[in-house]
Every structure is written in structure tokens, then in C-alpha cells.
Amino acid sequence: MQIPAQIKPWLTVEEMMVWVREVPTKESYRHRLVVWLTYIGPFHAQRVAELLAVSVPSVWHWVKEYNNRGPSGLEGPGSGGRRWSFLSWSEEQELLQSFYLRAGKGEIINAKKIHHNICEN
Predict the structure, then answer these.
(1) What is the pLDDT of residue 79?
(2) CA atoms within a 13 Å half-sphere pointing along the CA-CB vector of 84
(3) Hey, is 116 helix, strand or coil?
(4) Shared domain check, 70 and 95
(5) Based on CB atoms within 10 Å of each CB, which residue in 39, 70, 89, 96 is the most buried?
(6) DSSP per residue, 38-97
(7) What is the mean pLDDT of residues 34-55?
(8) Is 64 found in the same domain as 102?
């Protein structure tokens, strides 16, 4: 069996305890717990993943980010999100609002109509 990951000593034990407790979001808490459990166990990535209900590759990714960049390595944006779009946020809201109004009047709105309107703009 593979040995547990090693956590680089960016923080002392006391600093790490404070770092784990003082989190801005639930997602950040999970990332920090991965580092904490790997450090104090030391638990294997499989065990940490089971305890926190995350994937093993996620555990390895977060440990790697922490080891490479320190505590700030886990603070960046995730991999999800809006990467490209046909419309800006405001244009999209405006378009959707027009569909809400039309649907409220009884018109049936489907993807074909939405696509046609997007292509017209």
C-alpha cells in the first residue's frame, strides 16, 4: 500500500488549527479538512476521501495545491463556472425576462424559440 501523503510545514500545528476553523465557505472548510486529516493522521487519501465524502483525486489535488503554494493554494476559484457565453449577464437576464413575460401570458416557450431569439440578437 502507498504511504500517506506528506504535508509541507507551511504552518505550525496551532496555526493550522486556526486556519482550519476560520474559513469563509463550506467548500473551503472541506479543502482545509483534507489537509488537516492528511497531516494529523496521517491518513491515506482513500480514507480521507471516505471520511469527507469526496473523490480520491480531489484529495490528491488539494494536498498538492497546499504543498506547492501553501495555505493560499486552496483559496483560488474552483474549476467550475461560466467559461464562455453568447450573451453578457445583463443581456441574458433581459432575454430571460422577456421569456418569463411571454410564458406568463400563456405562450409555450421551448429551446427552439430561445435559440432563435439568441441568434437574432
Answers:
(1) 67
(2) 0
(3) helix
(4) no
(5) 39
(6) HHHSPPPHHHHHHHHT--HHHHHHHHHHHHHH-GGGGSS--S-S----SS-HHHHHHHHH
(7) 92
(8) no
Kindly report the pTM of this predicted structure. Answer: 0.62
Is the backbone peptide bond immediately before 77 cis, with ω within 30 degrees of 0? Answer: no
**What cell does 32 get?**
482545509
Same domain, 23 and 60: yes
Tell whether 49 and 24 lie within a shared domain.
yes
Which grid cell is 96? Answer: 430571460
Domain-located, residue 6: no
Q: Which residues of 35-66 are buried (b: 16+ CB within 10 A; e: fewer)?
A: bbbbbeeebbbebbbeebebeeebbbbbbebb
pLDDT given at position 1? 61
Contact, 34 vs 27, CB < 8 A? Answer: no
Domain range holding 105? 89-120
Residue with cell 486556519: 19
Instruction: Examine the domain organization and report whether 103 and 61 are in the same domain.
Output: no
Interval 47-100: pLDDT, tens = 999 999 999 999 999 999 999 999 988 887 666 666 777 778 888 888 889 889
